[in-house]
Amino acid sequence: MELFLTGIVLKPKGLKGELKVQPVTDFPESFLTRREYYIGKSPEEVVVRKVRSAKFQQGFAWLMFEGIESREEAEAAAGSRLYVTGDALEPMPDDRAYLHDLIGLEVVDEAEGRVGVISNVLQMPAQDVYEIDTGGKKVLVPAVEEFITEIDLDKGIVTLRRFSEFL
Q1: In terms of domains, do 84 and 129 share one?
Q2: Domain count, the chain
Q3: Which phi and psi (to 5°) does residue 125 adopt?
Q4: Cβ distance 30 to 109 under 8 Å?
Q5: What are the phi and psi torsion angles at 166 (to 5°)?
Q6: Which residues, 6+ apart, have CB-to-CB distance to 75 below 8 Å?
Q7: Residues lower than pLDDT 50 in the chain
Q8: What are its GO cellular component terms (predicted)?
Q9: Are 67 and 121 part of one and the same domain?
Q10: What is the CATH number of the domain that holds 149?
Q11: What is the C-alpha to C-alpha distance for residues 54 and 64, in angstroms, rounded to an integer?
Q12: 37 touches 82 (CB < 8 A)
């Protein structure tokens, strides 16, 4: 089962197990409707927890889970990650894609043809950066309209321009 990171538990609040969570999603409002998460320090050591209550305030989710009902249990959960399964992900608008959907796409330059495959997407402060494996080395390309002209998930192709500037 593939799990996707959606939040990071920052710290407990109060005595009844409430947790402050930093959303790691473009859909933070989904914290108000999700009924369960996979919680753990890594995807390999998760436990399924049902949500008892959820609030969203000042950019943070405040969650209470079954099985985390004291401050001590909440303190033990600090630093954990919240994951969801692929079928629980929010649907993306047509002009957007999940980062994991981009990894493995073939990269084609408008002038040079096929140049490689996206091997990673790095989230930088200014914009995302695509790591492209050319077979011989990895090349970093900013994910901005100036360089990325089209992303076609159905065909599995990312089209870009001026790739030679990054070599």
Answers
A1: no
A2: 2
A3: -60, -40
A4: no
A5: -100, -5
A6: 11, 12
A7: none
A8: cytoplasm; ribosome
A9: no
A10: 2.30.30.240
A11: 7
A12: yes
